[in-house]
Design goal:
The chain is an alpha+beta fold. Helix content is 38%, strand content 27%. Helix 3 crosses helix 12, helix 5 crosses helix 12 and helix 6 packs parallel to helix 12. The N and C termini lie close together (9 Å).
Length: 417
């Protein structure tokens, strides 16, 4: 069988097929080996196929018929439920290590630091389908026009994603347990990553204000990591002190025709809850835009454009020692966390169907989600490093690229050699 260039690239860079073949089998005497099932799910996710039923159809008579061969959705679900998530997590970490050794994680703007963002997202919810690992909540909703309160079952995951690179690189995910909060789940994920990747792999962690908690930052520092988190009302004493101390003269001001940025730098602000001092940077960002307004002009509607200024104020707290580095670096570090939501979560939910449960069994859903994330990571890597970087003209988007993968597999023919 001839090989698709996507798989050829993965084997050349990561020895991917051999790594997948080495994954442990969770079943006894299976008809279809785990490597075949894994490759069906992985390639289906890379081509952004949403359901296992569609993967089954593609394996029987579609784009994966020549590459995989007949494989039922029930077989895939049965195999997923009986695999351990740990080897998949370890495989993702092995790939991340190879990316760092190959220099893919280098970044100029982050001054050589490998910066990871942590954040949580809900991936599926249902009033009828549940599994042993589901979280639960009471939700009011309308049924046939009547308002009623029912138990809703759902899952949440926390992800860690490298955001200092030209394109974001997911490192791993962890499912929140029922009754577990997002912050402890994120800490457990970071510990797992440090255990797998080593203490020198990551340099700094960024995140929303929910992560600016004394116990969490203490544990992050114990892992050998610096941090930069948004400062909001959940730390009122620290925020109040920062507001008071930034009432004076600003430190830095930048402006261009579209936006203005003013910055205040506080190298040592007392954080009473944590019994320590932290560095705080305050920014006031003003964006100049032109908005369309519609007004009535007699019998006609009149459109006019008017200039508006949109101002936003943000505070960021960090333990990072700036030295000769300007305070605006903290601002850029902290804002990089938006990439996990705007680029990763947005893409893997809309294009890669992360919120489509496909299988709603405890272990099966975890393993499926990990494989989907791995497929997103490697297909995104191939897209940016081998497709977009080599394009001489306008390049198709990531979604169109996934369709192109499907066409490529459909064109494969048995090797005649």
């Amino acid at each position: 069988m001839s090989r698709h260039r996507f798989e050829t690239y993965l084997d050349k860079v990561f020895d991917f097929s051999s790594r997948v073949e080495a994954l442990p089998e969770g079943r006894h005497s299976p008809t279809h080996p785990w490597q075949k099932v894994f490759e069906a799910v992985f390639l289906g996710a890379s081509m952004q196929i949403p359901s296992l039923l569609q993967v089954e159809a593609e394996c029987r008579r579609g784009v994966l018929a020549k590459r995989i061969g007949p494989l039922s959705a029930d077989t895939i679900g049965y195999a997923l439920q009986r695999q351990s998530p740990e080897p998949i997590f370890a495989l993702g970490c092995e790939i991340a290590s190879r990316l760092k050794r190959n220099g893919v994680l280098r970044s100029e703007w982050s001054r050589g630091l490998v910066v990871a963002a942590v954040d949580g997202i809900e991936i599926c919810s249902s009033f009828t389908r549940c599994c042993d690992a589901c979280m639960q909540r009471e939700v009011q909703h309308k049924v046939r026009g009547e308002l009623r309160t029912d138990i809703q079952y759902y899952h949440r995951i926390v992800a860690a994603v490298i955001v200092s690179t030209p394109f974001p690189v997911p490192l791993g995910i962890r499912f929140q347990k029922d009754g577990e909060a997002e912050v402890p789940c994120a800490l457990a994920l970071l510990r797992d990553l440090v255990d797998q990747l080593g203490r020198r792999f990551l340099d700094l962690v960024v995140g929303d204000a929910i992560y600016l908690q004394a116990p969490f930052v203490k544990e992050v520092e114990a892992l050998g990591l610096d941090w930069a988190f948004t400062l909001k009302q959940n730390q009122p004493e620290l925020l109040h002190e920062a507001e008071r101390l930034t009432a004076g003269e600003l430190v830095v001001e930048q402006s261009d025709p579209d936006r203005e940025l003013r910055c205040w730098h506080l190298p040592a602000v007392d954080w009473p809850v944590a019994d320590r001092v932290v560095r705080v940077v305050k920014t006031v960002r003003t964006e100049h835009k032109r908005e369309v307004t519609i007004s009535q002009d007699g019998d006609h509607l009149k459109k006019t454009k008017s200039a508006v200024a949109i101002e936003s104020t943000n505070f960021y707290a960090t333990n990072f020692e700036l030295g000769v580095i300007p305070p605006l670096f903290v601002y850029r570090l902290s804002r990089s966390r938006w990439r996990i939501d705007a680029e990763v979560f947005q893409t893997i939910t809309t294009d890669c169907h992360l919120k489509h449960p496909a299988v709603h069994q405890s272990t099966a859903l975890v393993v499926l989600t990990m494989i989907r994330l791995l497929a997103y990571t490697l297909s995104s890597l191939f897209y940016h490093r081998q497709v977009r970087s080599h394009a001489r003209g306008p390049c198709d988007g990531f979604h169109e690229f996934a369709k192109g993968l499907a066409y490529g597999f459909h064109a494969l023919s048995p090797d005649t050699s």
